Amino acid sequence: MKTATTGQPSCSIQATLDIVGDRWTLLILRDLFRGVRRFSAMQHDLGIARNMLADRLSRLTDAGVAAKVPYQHRPVRYDYVLTPKGLDLSNSLLALMAWGDRWCHDGDAPTVLVHADCGTPLEIATRCPECDEPVTPTRIRSRAGHSEPPASDVLAAAGAARTFQQHPTNGGAL
């Protein structure tokens, strides 16, 4: 669903999927995080058609997720590197990987990610920044963000008594 005023998706998940929401793009991002930077190396690693790889890399660079950096000038050839916007996708990919380890590989991770400084395997956790407590999916609620009308206006219009939406089956709210 898009907003009437901006034409942008009204859901951040949808907006993200518009940029990175297909199999090849996620695998290209995985390669970029692993340090695979050259077109030919990505093509070889992924087994992807040249035109499809070129299209996905173009989309990522147009969206500011990756940047093309020349490494050779005659002929011009490029490395693809993650921008700060691209690096911010790390936790999303880590969460997908952790889910796959648990549900597709019965907890037997084919690859273990570790802290570069000490070698300890990493954990994915959601914590409250205020009380530093871990937060499970059933303890997450949603409320209107900055682009939404103030909660008081929403409540008045809806005659509601709360500012969050709760998912009926698990208590979470995405």
Overview of the molecule:
The chain has 174 residues and is an alpha+beta fold. It is built from seven helices and four strands; from the N terminus they run ααααββααβαβ. A hairpin with a 2-residue loop joins strand 1 (66-73) and strand 2. The model is unreliable at 154-164 (pLDDT under 50).
Number of helices: 7
Q: Runs with pLDDT <50, length 5+?
A: 154-164
- Write out the strand line-up for the largest beta sheet, numbering strands in chain order: 1-2
* End-to-end gap: 15 Å
Task: Characterize the overall form.
Answer: globular
Oligomer status = single chain
Largest sheet: 2 strands, antiparallel
**Radius of gyration from the CA trace?**
20 Å
Indicate the mean pLDDT.
87
Structural class: alpha+beta
Determine the fraction of residues in helical runs and give it as a percent range.
25-40%
Listing every helix as H and every strand as E from the N terminus to the C terminus, the arrangement reads: HHHHEEHHEHE
**DSSP strand content:** 5-15%
The tally of beta strands, per DSSP, is: 4
